[in-house]
Amino acid sequence: MPEVRHVASAGDDPLLADYANLTDVALRRRLEPAGGLYIAEGLKVLSRALAAGHRPRSVLALEKELDGVLAAVGGREVVVLAAGPEVIEGITGFDVHRGVLAAMRRPATEDPAALIAGARTVVVLEDIVEHANVGAAFRSAAALGADAVLVTPRCADPLYRRSVKVSMGAVLQVPWARIPWPEGYDLVRGAGLHLAALALAEDAVELDDWAPPERVALLLGTEGRGLSARALAAADTIVRIEMAGGVDSLNVAATSAVALHAIRRRGA
Fold it and tell me: Which candidate among 30, 190, 199, 219 keeps its CA 20 to 30 Å from the CA of 210?
């Protein structure tokens, strides 16, 4: 059964250290993956994490959210830390308006080769460093039927708090793995997937004219310079989305949604 502890300051419980300075990205990068944790924000995301089989180390919640948290965790043995808004903001460094944070134990990492062995649609994120874009791309992947997401070593952490929040918990339901890069090209092709790069290139095929094969890996690049030259050279096909209104390209997360929708529609 959950154990409720009411706290009035950051020093009242050692478990509160997991929630300190959540806006300090550099600090959280050192603490969370190394410590085997990630932070889930909001009752909906907590519920999705629990449904995915992830285990909480503790939950920090506003007093007014306590009933909802206890209903979500059910009979699990977990410490629930309840506090007022000023106390929580003082610990985390921001106004936790969703009212619930959970320090979750990270699941075991997936083997990328096994993950994509039977996949029909895979999204590959190359060096995307903006956490919100990673989260939004995962949300598109979940909503539009991608089987898995692969991320390169320099890509932002999909389980960073902002990624999880923007994805509305989709990073907890879409299987994903980190892959070596650029060795990952061979891994994807070895699984029988057609590597399609989304990029602005003179020799690119317009998405409206492209007939995607049955099994596809969509390759998406970083927000600034796009895909690396090596990624473009490795692609089986380069695809672009026709623009209007003087706009040269879409945000990378929006691009993922448009391309995934096109693939799903043509496979229907």
Answer: 190
Give the tokens for residue 133.
């874009």
Task: Read off the CATH number of the domain in which 7 is found.
Answer: 3.30.1330.30
Q: Report the distance separating Cα 121 and Cα 149, nearest Å.
A: 9
pLDDT of residue 268: 44
* Mean pLDDT value across residues 62-71: 96
Which of 84, 105, 126 marks a domain boundary?
105
Q: What's the Cα-to-Cα distance from 169 to each of 37, 46, 51, 65, 87, rounded to whole Å?
A: 15, 8, 11, 19, 26
Same domain, 23 and 145: no
Q: Number of H helices and number of E strands within the chain?
A: 10, 12
Strands 205-206 and 237-240 turn out to be parallel
Residues 258 and 130 reside in one and the same domain? yes
pTM of the model: 0.90
Query: pLDDT per residue over 25-62, tens digit each?
Result: 888 888 888 889 999 999 999 999 999 999 999 999 99
Structure tokens at 79: 């410490």
3-state secondary structure of 4: strand
Cα atoms in the Cβ-side hemisphere of radius 13 Å centred on 265: 10
Give the C-alpha separation, 67 to 209, whole Å: 53
Q: How far is CA 191 from CA 125, 178, 187, 225, in A?
A: 17, 16, 6, 28
Parent domain of 17: 3-105
